[in-house]
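Researcher: Can you fold this with beta-alanine in place?
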Amino acid sequence: MTEIVHTVAELRQRVRAWRAAGESVGVVPTMGALHEGHLSLARRARAECGRVITTIFVNPKQFNNPDDLKKYPRTLKADASLLSSVPVDIVFAPSVDEVYPEGFASTVSVAGVSEPLEGRMRPGHFDGVATVVTKLFGMTEAHRGYFGQKDWQQLQVVLRLVRDLNLPVEVVGCETIREADGLAMSSRNVRLTPEGRAIAGVLYSAITAAATDIRAGQSDRMAIREAAEKVRAAGFERVEYIELRDAGTLMPSDDPRRARRMLAAAWLDGVRLIDNIPV
Ligand SMILES: Nc1ncnc2c1ncn2[C@@H]1O[C@H](COP(=O)(O)OP(=O)(O)OP(=O)(O)O)[C@@H](O)[C@H]1O
Ligand SMILES: CC(C)(CO)[C@@H](O)C(=O)[O-]
Ligand code: BAL
């Protein structure tokens, strides 16, 4: 049975009882408007942990764009019913005041890995993510936390903060779930028009082709330029970045012997889509 819990006090009571009984606890942090990508994380947690908590919290501190925050889809009822099919034990859906009560004054800031790409395009975003993820780990006392590779840089930020702050959590990165045309599932996809949705898969196919070309010996720069041209030609309004980076540090990397990642962000129908793949 899936139970919806809104307060930290009630959550703690449940978790303490589980832990006292020797059960392992997994947490899947989300902002709701759930899709198969989220559910795959929850199923993995279900398979690996005795108890599973999914958190649903649209975290105002990580939105640098007030319009994006206002338009973020909120579908708690439908989300809870999807999660009961996994099933997860608890849906933790706190209010903004519960998470950030009067007088809240702390920020967790991860230097380095949070600075380029998403960090540069969305100032303050990763401070908001690092702060709320640290709090969610503290609130849930989870042994394991599940995060999607779709938000690759976020996953690296969380890994860094857990290491740096000695948090007793094992971070598990889970593969990106895609639509049939390759589009990475994302809650923001519902804001695409039918015309936009029809071309959205080009972001993935363009970076996949670039990665293949680079592995076949094409120069990084040429392959990336061609990918950006394909995305624009398909009808995207703007390519914010397509970059080849060290997979762990997110710093520029032209060393094919190291694990590298191609990361992209582009605008379609006024919606900002991101994706990434290994190279
Ligand atoms: N397609 C996906 N495959 C695997 N994991 C995913 C996918 N989409 C999101 N996740 C993961 O689910 C967790 C919660 O993400 P979030 O609630 O922001 O959903 P989202 O679909 O990424 O929404 P957004 O529109 O904000 O990008 C994150 O760890 C994220 O990486
Ligand atoms: C990890 C997270 C739930 C923190 O708010 C959010 O950034 C997300 O949904 O990826
Ligand atoms: N999925 C990452 C959270 C965000 O876009 O704000």
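Model: Folded with beta-alanine in place. The pocket of pantoate (ligand 2) is lined by residues 29-31, 59, 62, 129, 132-133, 151, 154 (CB under 6 Å).
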